[in-house]
Amino acid sequence: MAEARPTRGHVLVVEDEAYVRESLGEMLRARRFLVDLAPGPRDALELLARSSVDVVLTDLRLPDGGGLEVVRSVKASYPEVPVIVLTGFGTVASAVECLQAGASDYILKPAAPAALEVAIERALEGRALRRELAYLRGGEEERDLPI
After folding, report:
1. What are the CA-CA distances from residue 115 to residues 36, 47, 54, 75, 104 (Å)?
2. Which of 27, 95, 96, 106 is most buried, by the most CB atoms less than 10 A from its CB?
3. 3-class DSSP state for residue 2?
4. What local confidence, expressed as pLDDT, does residue 134 receive?
5. Phi, psi at 36, each rounded to 5°
């Protein structure tokens, strides 16, 4: 019996163009990520409410609300989930705006698969470090309690 390969993390891809969305999904699955696909912000938020996602990868330009709104909504409801913005129409101003809103990275299309993989790994590592820090801070608070 074949052994199942462990996944490296759960990625939610938000992209309105079906071909790009499916291509990103295939590429990430080939790199052992568990992937959910959403065509827009509403679908993405519904998926986030139903399942535990480690990283959101969103296009900047979406028809029913942009990637910036995805960043803001995810950060408001799921602050621990990193959001990576992917765009074919990047500007310094939009990059600054996305990063100020809480995006963990801003990548220009067409992005090399290796660059996306590095960005996702970096986001996962950052999330793991924040979790560990929260755990350790929680432990310090418990040690400071009177007996």
Report:
1. 20, 25, 18, 23, 14
2. 106
3. coil
4. 80
5. -115, 150
Please state, rounded to an integer, the average pLDDT across all residues of the chain: 86
| Helix H or strand E segment including 3 | none
Burial (CB < 10 A; 0-12, 13-18, 19+), residue 16, is middle
Q: How far is C-alpha 103 from the geometric centre of its chain's CA atoms?
A: 9
How is residue 75 written in tokens? 């950060």
* Beta-carbon contacts of residue 39 (< 8 Å; ≥ 6 apart): 14, 15, 16, 18, 21
Looking at the DSSP bridge assignments, the partners of residue 59 are 86
% the chain with pLDDT above 70: 90
At residue 133, the pLDDT reads 83
Q: Tokens for 4, please give them.
A: 């199942």
**pTM for the predicted model, two decimal places:** 0.84
